[in-house]
Amino acid sequence: MQFNFLAILVAAIVPLIIGFIWYNPKVAGIAWMKASGMTEEKMKGSNVIMIFVLTIILSFLISFFMQFLTIHQFGASGMIGGDESHATPSYFAFMKEYGMVYRSFGHGALHGFLAVFFFVFPIFAINSMFERKSWKYVFINVTFWAITLMIMGGIICGWYAADGFNWVTQK
Predict the structure, then answer these.
(1) Considering the domain boundaries, does residue 169 fall inside one?
(2) What is the domain extent for residue 59?
């Protein structure tokens, strides 16, 4: 299978966009600042450009991994080691029949939500308990990640279906 790097790049921008909206003082920004102990002075003393650059790089890593969570066909590709030159005719028949099954924005969003519920939330909650952060802090941040990963998953999973990109090599 080929990777859709355009979809991955577009999805990697989502955390910045949602972050600008979610952590705005008119949405959840003031509540987050109180719950996290963040102050205006701390925010002014940071290298914002470096934070944004690192955010894009780290978001790209998340976006790259999201395709494996949202696109079931990667499992079939993984069973042949990802190298279609070693695949049997049954693999190509399977991919021809099921290559675009469950390839939609909604399906990707569902898997984004599941990733948050079963992975992000527990990790965030455990860290926050040891850091003695409030549950309000946990839910503000986990809600951000739920919205973000649902959109990222939807973009990544639905992009192929939307543009009709044929990633199945016919023999």
Answers:
(1) no
(2) 5-163
